[in-house]
Every structure is written in C-alpha cells, then in structure tokens.
Specification:
By secondary structure, this protein is an all-alpha fold. It contains 9 helices and no strands. It has one domain: CDP-alcohol phosphotransferase transmembrane (TM) domain (Four Helix Bundle (Hemerythrin (Met), subunit A), Up-down Bundle).
Length: 255
C-alpha cells in the first residue's frame, strides 16, 4: 500500500514505533486463524517498524514480500525435495507472508494507504494464492513417484478451493467496508475468540507455508496437504451460505 512519497527517517525510536503501531493497528477479523492472528501480525509489526525507521514505502515492502514468495514457489516446482530445501521453502513463504502483513501496517504508520497500494497488494496475493498450488502440482509431477496420476488432482482441487476462498474473502471484506454499520465485530481476546482461531487453523496460510518443511517426505507432506485441503473445503462450504446471508441483509433497513 503506497502512502506518502518522502523517505525521511522518523525521529522516534524503533521501540516507540513498535508501541505506536501496536496501539494503532486495526483489530483482526473475527475468526482469524491462529498463526495469522497471534504470530504473523506480530512479526509483521516488527518488520513494519523497521521499514518505517529505514524510510521505506509500503510498496517496497510489498515487492520484498513478492520476492520471497516467488523464490519459494519456484523452488517448490523446480528444486529436488531435500530436507533442507523444504526448510528454505517454508522460511521463504513465511517471510513473504510476514512482509505481506507488514505493508499494510507500514501504511498505517505513514498515515494511511492508497487504492493503488491496496490494488498492488491484492494482485500479489492473488498470484501467490494460485501459483503456490500449481507449483505443488509441478513439483509432484517432476519429483514424486506418482503411482496413480489421479493424485495430481489434489493440488488442482486445492488451487480451485484457494482461489475461490481468496476471492470471496476479498469481496466480502469490500462489501463490509461499504456497510460498516452491518459488518460483524472484530475479533476480541476472549476464550471463545481464541478457540475459534484455533478451530480454523486448516484455513491458515501460515500453517500451509509451515508444512513445506515436510516436502522431502512425499507421503507425510501429502497427508498434511490433503488434511489442509479437506479442512479448508469444509470451512468454505460452511462459510459461503453464512456470508451470503450476511451480505443479503445489507440492503435491508437497519433495525
């Protein structure tokens, strides 16, 4: 997200920037999965504060996020699946995810984002969402001993589910912004909200990134990958009618 054009260094300390961002950070969406809510946002906060101290722009942070993600996704498709390759892939994806969280936080530090910056952020996310699973498809075909070609339908199916999930989330968020009086309350720190975050872990992009440490062991990785696909599919099937009912009420008069 792009904001001010100047690159002047701030006068406040790094610690002060982190504290200010923690106070200004928007609350997570209700039902945000655990890694994204409790880990990635905090890592992104540190990166955003460091980028602010260096005078970087949100778009620069977005490009760094895209670079880490692209390198890791290319490795999934092309590299031999050794144990250390899986670790590098997971680290690259998680760093890309952390920088993806940081660009929006940096925009808030600098006074707010722009439509062009939000557009760039979503374009990068949309490419990443589909490219990751297509890279798994290529990697399985190139390096795994696939005894049944039908197994390649698994990453194809995950590509479909992930792309639908991403689009519906973005569209629902945009419609909620247009009707803030009808939007659900953000997540809180209650035990129920924490439990909800844990229950939706299969939809967590951070968990998907992390399972690539298993990429060198085909059967174990495939089992974890299928489990995340099943969990995400079940969640999506349950969430779609709920979100539709929520959006349908937007045109009704307020009580």
């Amino acid at each position: 997200m792009s904001t001010r054009q100047d690159n002047a260094r701030p006068e406040e300390s790094f610690a002060d920037t982190v504290r200010r961002l923690a106070g200004a950070q928007k609350p997570p969406a209700k039902g945000s999965p655990a890694y994204s809510r409790f880990v990635n946002r905090k890592i992104g906060r540190i990166i955003a504060a460091a980028a602010y101290q260096l005078g970087m722009t949100p778009n620069q942070v977005t490009y760094i996020s895209a670079g880490f993600s692209a390198a890791a996704i290319a490795a999934i498709a092309l590299a031999q699946p050794h144990w250390w390759v899986g670790i590098l892939i997971a680290v690259g994806l998680l760093l890309g995810y952390a920088f993806d969280s940081a660009d929006g936080q940096l925009a808030r530090l600098r006074g707010g984002g722009t439509p062009a910056g939000e557009w760039l952020d979503h374009v990068v996310d949309s490419i990443k969402t589909t490219a990751l699973h297509l890279a798994v498809l290529i990697g399985w075909y190139r390096h795994y001993d696939i005894s049944h070609i039908e197994l390649l339908l698994i990453p194809i199916g995950f590509t479909l589910v992930a792309s639908v999930f991403f689009f519906v989330q973005i569209l629902t968020d945009q419609l909620r912004r247009a009707h803030p009086d009808r939007a659900p309350a953000p997540a809180d720190s209650s035990a129920g909200a924490t439990l909800r975050s844990i229950l939706v872990i299969p939809t967590d992009y951070g968990v998907l990134c992390a399972i690539f440490v298993l990429f060198a062991w085909p059967s174990i990785f495939a089992g974890a990958y299928v489990a995340l696909l099943a969990g995400t599919t079940l969640f999506l099937c349950a969430a779609l009618p709920k979100w539709y009912r929520e959006i349908r009420r937007f045109h009704e008069p307020a009580a």
